[in-house]
Amino acid sequence: MKQNRKTSSGLGQLLIPLVALGILIVFNIFRDISFFSIGMRVNNAGNIVLTGNLISIIDSASELAIIAMGMTLVTAACGGQDISVGAVGAIAGAVFVKVLQGMGAITIGSVILAFVLCCLATIVFKLFNGTLVAVFKIQPMIATLILYSCARSIAYWINGDATPQLKSSIISSIGKTIPGIPVPTPIFAVILVGLLLFLIFKFTSLRLYIQSVGINQGAARLNGMNPIMIKLICFILLGVCVSVASLIGVCRLGQLNHKTLLVDIEMDAILAVAIGGNSLGGGRFKLSGSILGAYIIQMLTTTLYAMNVAPVNVKAYKAIVIIIIVVAGSPVVKNKLTALWKRLRPVPVPEGAEKEG
Amino acid sequence: MTRKVITLLIALAMVFALAACGQQAAAPAASGSADSGLIKVGIINLDPSESGYREANVKNLTDTFTKENGYDATFVTAPTADKQLEAAKGFITAQVKYILVSAAETTGWDEVLKEAKEAGIKVFLFDRMIDCDPSLYTAAVVSDMRQEGETAVAWLESLNLSEYNILHIKGQLGSAAQIGRSDPLTEKCAADAKWTIVREGTGGDSWDPNEARKIAEAAINAGETFNIVYAENDGMAGGVVEALDAAGITHGVNGDVIVMGFDCNKWALRELLAGNWNYDGQCSPFQAAVIDEMIKTLEAGGAIEGLNELNQIISVEKGFDATKITQEDIDTYGLGE
């Protein structure tokens, strides 16, 4: 019994996403092994870049992976999701571009300053959400609906301009590749954000606090924690994640479009959290699961692209696969599978092992 | 208590949403008294965030139809046909003297235009044509989008390539710009065996560069090979180029892929000058001065001359080749910054 509990909280949570990823990989091996080929080419700017579907997957999923990490924390602490991440991302982008334009020249210093200010602005908006959720105890979905519906208009007011262009080698270094380094920069951003959160959890008790608040905030308060503060911290961290994702989004194209920047990413981020085996009702969480979820979603998209499905139709096919993954990860199916696994295990037949998947 | 707070917040959210709508479809309420001697004009345009072209177009109009220039103008920028029609009805109620329209869609305007005509309001179309009887509007100052497409295709043909494998990125479906720029290409591909459209995609209801990037990425992921990108505006061409750069595919004058765009934004022409793109087709957004002149003529009791059988005045436009473009061209013809 004791051992059983351990597996369900350890690898058990990652079982479904890992199996899903495995199936995707096996499917692609049989479909077309060249899907995995990685090449090196020199692009127009004279930079050597790594190319291939795998690189494209890891690169394109960057924004999603970063936001999914933040979303996991908010989900764990509040038992609900912030659906305004994409829209607030547009504000972040607008602030970033506005500050850069205000300073005139694009230098490393001005980019850093613009990013810091955009981070602060995003955190303010996220704290607005956080206050509604933590202090006023409004359901997260309702509380964040406000910014979901109006944040893109706010981004429009901030910027006014239509689609401002940012053409600079610094911008393309952030959004594409740094000259001399063939790996796309957004991948480093994911690692950086992941490392930041890892270090925070390693050197503080935040993880424990978040989980306690998510599981039972009454009990957490009785144990001397401040649930409001913990939730607000989660929203602040989400704000940082959103600003980084927005920075990547703006730099990728070298322009800002407040209508389409990070559009619909909130839904994919929530999905990534769910596919990663995290409970959307809060409590225990695993960041690695959400990151894995994000890459699964992108791999699915790229696989569909490779199978000549048009971008407009991808969403429908994606939905089918995601339903299967989510249902397979649901408690009902999980319990049934565990029961089946237990029933088969005492019998020493080799085929029992295959039933697990 | 909680419920009350939630209700309050939802109400707040609605107010916010309303405020957001107000931004786009500011009700054309009656403005300015008639005795001020200003000419009352209602101008219906598309959202400036649509593209660099639109930004320049909106600015051109707001700069021309000013109080100093003798106009009492109300501007509405709305991205969709229904909001535009609503705005037009509002202008008719407010009894403006002239209505200027750049229509989101080519159809569905007959009723409103008839209403306007009965109310004695003169209608000018700019930038985009409307599918209706030419008697319903006074004049249309437009670009010949089909001509733009034909110029581009003729330029492409003059390159004499052995193969034309084209990635075709269509703009906002159903808009005059999209149809005019698409048709010559699709007709050429149907007629000539050397010309193939390898993959086509669209921004759907938008001119979204990110959507264009995804289409290109999908084509590259699927292992398609193409040597021409025919994107129907600069932003979308930019999106495709981003995907090409990420995949290490060279483009431009000395590259593997020919990149074509439309609108002649300054930043796009600079890409041409740098040799990263190959072609950019002009689409002039400066119709305000022509309309201003026509209105002044009508006000002075004169008649408008130089219209064709469809009551149109066509802007003269050209296409730029990366190997021939100069900094002077960019300064003269480029839009925006």
Question: Can you give a write-up of this model?
Answer:
The complex is a heterodimer of chains A (357) and B (337). Chain A has 17 helices and two strands. Chain A is mostly helical. Chain A has a domain at 58-296. A two-stranded antiparallel sheet of chain A has the order 1-2. In chain A, strand 1 (39-42) and strand 2 (48-51) form a beta hairpin. Chain A starts with a helix and ends with a helix. The model of chain A is unreliable at 1-9 and 352-357 (pLDDT under 50). Helices cover 42% and strands 19% of the residues of chain B. Chain B folds into two domains: 2-143 and 285-305, Rossmann fold; 145-283 and 318-333, Rossmann fold (3-Layer(aba) Sandwich), CATH 3.40.50.2300. The model of chain B is unreliable at 20-34 (pLDDT under 50). By secondary structure, chain B is an alpha/beta fold. The termini of chain B are far apart. Chain B is built from eleven helices and twelve strands. A six-stranded parallel β-sheet of chain B has the order 2-1-3-4-5-11, with helices on both faces. In chain B, strands 7-6-8-9-10-12 form a six-stranded mixed β-sheet, with helices on both faces. The longest helix of chain B is centred in the first third of the chain and has 23 residues, at 2-24. Chain B has helices at residues 2-24, 52-64, 81-93, 110-118, 145-158, 176-191, 209-221, 234-246, 266-273, 288-299, 327-333, and strands at 39-45, 71-77, 98-101, 122-127, 139-142, 164-170, 195-202, 228-231, 258-263, 279-282, 312-314, 319-321. Chains A and B meet through strand 1, strand 2, helix 3, helix 7 and helix 14 of A and helix 1, helix 2, helix 7 and helix 8 of B.
